[in-house]
Amino acid sequence: MRTPLPGVAAACGLAAMLLLGACTATGRQASDGAAVAPSPADEAAQQSTVDTKWGPLGPADRDLIVRVRQAALWEIPVGRQAQRRAARTTTRRNLGEIARRHAGSDALARQAAVKLNVPLPDQPTPEQQSWLSEITGKSGNDYDRTAIARMRTADGLLYASIGAVRGSTRNTLVRAFAEKCEPAVRARLKLLEGTGFVTGDTLPDPPQVASAPLPGNPKQPASPAPAATALLAGR
C-alpha cells in the first residue's frame, strides 16, 4: 500500500463518512485562518437537520455547499499561479482553465448558500493554505507534479462527496446543486489527468469493499456474459 499524501487519509475518512450518511463537526475558522475548536453547542448545530421549502437540509447537504466553495478558494490561486510558473505548457493551460471554470462552481455554491442560509468561508482552510505554501515552494516539474497531485486528490474526494449527497439528500435544491457540480468536477479531473502528471503513485488507494468477484484465470479467457434481458425472459 502506498503512503498517502499528507491530509489524504483524513480526507478519505471524511468522504467515507459522507457515504455512510454522517458528517463530522469541523469547527469554525478564525479570521487569521486558524481552526477554532467547536463548542458542544456548535457540534449539535452542525449535526442538526432544518426544514426548508426545498425539503430537509442536513449536515451533509450544508457540508457539500461549503466544500465546493472551499475548493474554489484554494484551487483558483493555484491555477492562476500555474499559468505563470508551471514548467509545461499543458500544465499552464489546463490549470489556468480550471481556475477559470471554478468561477461557475463558486457562483452555484454562493447561490445555494443564500437560499438555504448556509454560511460560507472566505479563505482556504489551514490545510489548504499549507498546500498552497508547499506548491509555491516548488519549481520546474516538481511544481507541476505537486500542484496536480494535490488538486487531483482533493477533487477526487469532492467528486465522491457529490455522488454521496446526490444519492441521499432529501433537499431538492441540494440535489440540483449536486447535479450541476458533478460535471464541473469531472471536467476538472479530466483537465488534471490530461497534463500527464497523474500516475498511479499520485493517487490515493482504492476504496476497500466487503466482497468482490475473484479475478479470472488469465489462461482461460472469459466467455461473454448473456444479456440481462435474456436471463429475464419469461419472468
UniProtKB/TrEMBL annotation:
Keyword Zinc found: no
Comp. bias intervals (Low complexity): 34-45, 225-235
Transmembrane segments: none
UniProt KW Signal keyword: yes
PROSITE patterns: PROKAR_LIPOPROTEIN
Sequence segments annotated as region (Disordered): 32-53, 198-235
Signal peptide limits: 1-30
Residue intervals of the DUF4142 domain: 60-190
InterPro entries: DUF4142 (IPR025419)
Keywords associated with the record: Signal
Pro residues: compositionally biased ranges: 215-224
One Pfam assignment: DUF4142
Name of the protein in question: DUF4142 domain-containing protein
Organism: Actinomadura darangshiensis
